[in-house]
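Exercise: predict the structure of this protein bound to iron/sulfur cluster.
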Amino acid sequence: MSKGTLFDKVWDLHTVGTLPSGQTQLFIGLHLIHEVTSPQAFAMLRERGLKVMFPERTVATVDHIVPTTNQARPFVDSLAEEMMQALEQNCKDNGIRFYNIGSGNQGIVHVIAPEQGLTQPGMTIACGDSHTSTHGAFGAIAFGIGTSQVRDVLASQTLALSKLKVRKVEVNGTLPTGVYAKDVILHIIRKLGVTGGVGFAYEYAGTTFEQMSMEERMTVCNMAIEGGARCGYINPDAVTFEYLKGRDFAPKGAEWDQAVAWWQSIRSDADAEYDDVVVFDAAEIPPTVTWGITPGQGIAVDQQVPTPEELPEKERSIAEEAYRYMDLQPGKPIKGTKVDVCFIGSCTNGRISDLREAAKIAQGRQVAAGIKAFVVPGSERVKQEAEAEGLHEIFKAAGFEWREPGCSMCLAMNPDKLEGRQISASSSNRNFKGRQGSASGRTLLMSPAMVAAAAIAGEVTDVRELL
Amino acid sequence: MSQVKAVVGRGIPLVGNDIDTDRIIPARFLRCVTFDGLGAQVFADDRSQSQGQHPFDQPQYQGAELLVVNRNFGCGSSREHAPQAIAKWGIKALVGESFAEIFFGNCVAMGIPCVTAAPADVHMLQTWLADNPQFPITLDLEALQVRFGNQAITVSIGEGSRNMFLSGTWDACGQLVAQAALIQETAARLPYIAWSKTA
Ligand code: SF4
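Solution:
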């Protein structure tokens, strides 16, 4: 049993009591909602005649279904329009703050909450979306929940949960050139497996994470869930406080000093006890690409697609399925794999620093003939910032499309989709079969810089050759 | 609220590891404001690709109520649409080698037990079901067994979740709301509550 970790401290502070089932009733400090997983929850609330207990602790935005080209209302897709109206109405009826399109604050829920300073250290955060783990970058305990649990949070601001174990995932050292936060998390998932984190909260610790910016930390925590861990976090430090200072919802004046002292106090103790510890060396992490149909099926960009013999017994059947689905040959290099679509965006890699890294690669170069390449900023603020820096001009000059913010082709609930067997280089987080909108479409996950490199070359390329 | 002590019905085997929520219910079907209608769309893409050979389409498994799966079932997104689609198709319980955590939690909140068993036992049960699709099987949450034909395998489920099914308290909402005073007390001792109001 873990002791003295940030997870333990935050858990204890938020414990309301123990339920008859033995589970903990945990208070949720910040609840984020969006159009996909909330309408049914509000309906359940109405059925039971319940009210939202703490409307001031829920924030809403719209991200999954929004078109990234024509955002005029009503949306062309009448189903999307219906979801949009349901969210608008539910927020209005219950007094919930809603960041709508055009408000200047709309965007992917996991991008907007941090950029507005809503996400803070020591909070418990829940959202009907598995990538809520992103917010752990601030030293919050943040996890995805299902719709019935969204109902529970709306009704009571609490959840019934069983405590997780804590694994410290330590990475030390400086990342080699051309290796990004995305590579770090893809590497961790590759090594610990997609189910390795089940039952655990991951504490990402070590000098590599300490040296990372907040946005890089968010990329890492975002994909905790792809490794099976429901939440991942990094202890708050000077980098965290620096990022938060002055943001809309960050404490001000005397409260700021109070807050910093409290945030310091909830860091894991030096002598904290963990249920498990694993250690990696940053120097050994390569630019990583997935070749298969789970985020754990990753290799270094200069490696070959593994042969069944190279894989542990229990990974072989899913590998066989992946060779067939992806139409990739075991033993062949991944580099040089032709791509059709290049997507830069998502809550994993749709922030300003991601766009900057991708723009560095795109600058003065041209997207290869026949490739569809597009950039979708994570939020309206990210878009505005990128345009102020002229990044959109760099992308457009290189042949990328520059879009409106949203989830877009991360999961293709909006009009952005792969077609047929198209293969995409994607900065998103999931390469499941059919994930990007075509039942036979294929996805290669990689860092945004690697996606930009793939767009230029028309095939999977080692970004280090373009730096 | 209803107690769930046992689920009796015919079984349907679905072989494969890491079956994710995008496969259970592809994202385009999430464009809805109610869960009604998801039953017809469960495994839509897998089913259309296997042209009638997917277990959910095979005649011998129609009306089955216990789904038997392998490792890491339900991984991926938090969408409750996935277990809702499975439930609306008619499934009342799942037996598998392992389940993704959010999927498992969603199932509990819906009153659908997911129990795990040793891989060899799951394989044996899946094989048996392929040969005997017409016979009902029993998931017994009190005895922690699945019984089929004249055989039985041991299954497990977290003690807390098991209690919730046995005592009929799997729908936590009422219990949570009932603690309003304690909830306010907890909120009052959290330093950030004062400075981070959003509305
Ligand atoms: S960007 Fe992708 S992973 Fe993130 S919230 Fe949107 S759909 Fe989910």
